[in-house]
Design a protein that fits this description.
The structure is a homodimer of 307-residue chains. By secondary structure, the first copy, chain A, is α+β, with helices and mostly antiparallel strands. Chain A has ten helices and eleven strands. The first copy, chain A, has two domains: 128 residues, 2-Layer Sandwich (60s Ribosomal Protein L30, Chain: A); 152 residues, PurM-like C-terminal domain (Phosphoribosyl-aminoimidazole Synthetase, Chain A, domain 2, Alpha-Beta Complex).
């Protein structure tokens, strides 16, 4: 057990500008500033009996930066409010190191923070970024192709692997504990995509949002599922597609594109064409309807959908 | 008890842009963008057995906006992450109404949020503002006068009043439950002040920060104490000065000023001259040293000071 002062002193090394004053930041001229806030609670969004505090910090930061990737922006600065039981300096430092490590990968400076006592451990992260052209959820057009930046389902497969102690599946565990926000991909896509969202709650829910806000429907030809995730699904007698449809937290980008831009984008980015935009509905091409559902946080705003 | 979906639907009325995408905002050309984050936890920063959820939201928002006032800025947009036990729609709505009510008073738009489940109720608020000239804590100069925007101690007196059920002291209760961030005052002061901070942890601690960062000392001639707070101190056989020195959460502005600007500022703003900047130390003019201490959150970064 350590004093709060020791915790703050240690955190100051990782977050030099932690404190109570407002801090300035810069937005590149010609860019639009954008911002998003996310909260993560121990026992709800992460489980410290399965992952380290470092990983909890890392993946919380990844999820937050992914909100900027999802609109085609570049993260600039991060603020972190940490609520935690008193006195655990190792926990605080490890969390902070995880946040800092991911933020550093994307040149995102941590310019502020607050540390408070609470029974639950929680992390609130606010990211400010900038975008040249913001890609919203509401721009999908009839005839557009529907694409995703990589196969899905790896993250939930990693979580299931950890829960069942199947530690030989290293790739999905890595995908779960160290997800990669698709910042560079989002920046490329900001030139091409007609609509975009990150896959945080599962393909079914995130696609539903995109379609609903664009006022269109979609037919899915194929659901790309991460390789190891397929094996785990088979091992657990589950459907691989369900990992992608209902797993979530892959933080890949789901986007729509005018077909004439497919070739141009292929030269700049690897991606998977999974379907096309139609007038209404959300179906596979064999006519089966795609049911809504998601990895159940109970709590995330966008995992609660009216049928 | 209500479903999470109902809570979100209700919150959407108050926070229309709550959701998971990053949201854009504007900064006035010629102004510098500034940002601050704060967290508030039930049982630590507010007590719902003493105040309503509306008031908890209101005062949390006031404390957050005060961080922008403290540097001479104007708040522009607010993001709110709410962690709370499942199902209490009345609590969620009341909190949100309190936050919205204070934000509206300062034309601060709520452009994003996140709602998550947690055992503790917590609020994380991130405010983005803009400043023409940022006034920092570190600019106090030898010979400057030390001033404060209003008498102090009202807030802690209000809290003590509530705890002891002395409900006839309406002014300090109002000061505690509905503090006013000094935005307009901060904007005026941004033209004149050499250094500034908001009194959030008590005059002694906040003055200590200002002096430490400026590399100077101060002599205090008089500590202005709020009228009702004086009465309550007498009633409770406590020293009125201690309410101001160690009470905190008044959110008045403590600032330094070149003496030649006193007259000019008097024409624009009411304020109290309380002392002057000297080479070192933190003393009353009778030589008594000012001890450090503060209203004990246990948790706030800046209430933990090395002696």
């Amino acid at each position: 057990m350590s004093t709060e002062l020791e915790i703050i002193d240690r955190l100051k090394i990782l977050f030099p500008k932690i404190g109570d004053d407002a801090e300035e930041f810069n937005i590149t001229p010609g860019f639009t500033p954008v911002v998003s806030i996310d909260s993560f609670v121990q026992g709800v969004h992460f489980d410290l009996s399965l992952i380290t505090p470092y990983d909890a910090g890392y993946r919380s930061c990844a999820a937050t930066l992914s909100d900027i990737a999802a609109i085609g922006g570049r993260p600039k600065v991060l603020l972190c409010a940490l609520g935690m039981p008193e006195g655990n300096i190792t926990l605080a430092e490890s969390l902070a190191r995880g946040i800092r490590s991911l933020a550093d990968k994307f040149d995102t400076e941590i310019i502020g923070g607050d540390t408070v006592k609470s029974k639950d451990l929680f992390i609130s992260l606010c990211v400010i970024g900038e975008a040249k052209r913001i890609v919203r959820r509401n721009g999908a057009k009839l005839g557009d192709v529907l694409c995703v930046t990589a196969p899905l389902g790896g993250s939930v497969a990693g979580l299931k692997t950890l829960k069942n102690n199947l530690t030989s599946f290293k790739e999905v565990i890595e995908k779960y504990i160290h997800p990669k926000p698709r910042i560079e991909e989002g920046l490329i896509l900001s030139e091409f995509a007609t609509s975009m969202i990150d896959v945080s709650d599962g393909l079914s829910i995130d696609l539903y949002h995109l379609l609903k806000e664009s006022g269109v429907g979609a037919i899915i030809h194929s659901v790309p599922v991460e390789k190891e995730a397929k094996k785990i699904a088979m091992l657990m007698e589950e459907k691989p597609d369900d990992f992608a449809l209902y797993g979530g937290e892959d933080f890949e980008l789901l986007f729509t594109l005018n077909r004439k831009n497919l070739g141009k984008l292929r030269k700049k980015l690897n991606f998977f064409e999974i379907g096309e935009i139609v007038k209404e509905g959300m179906r596979f091409d064999d006519g089966r309807e795609i049911k809504l559902g998601g990895y159940d946080h109970f709590t995330k705003v966008n995992s609660k959908i009216k049928y």
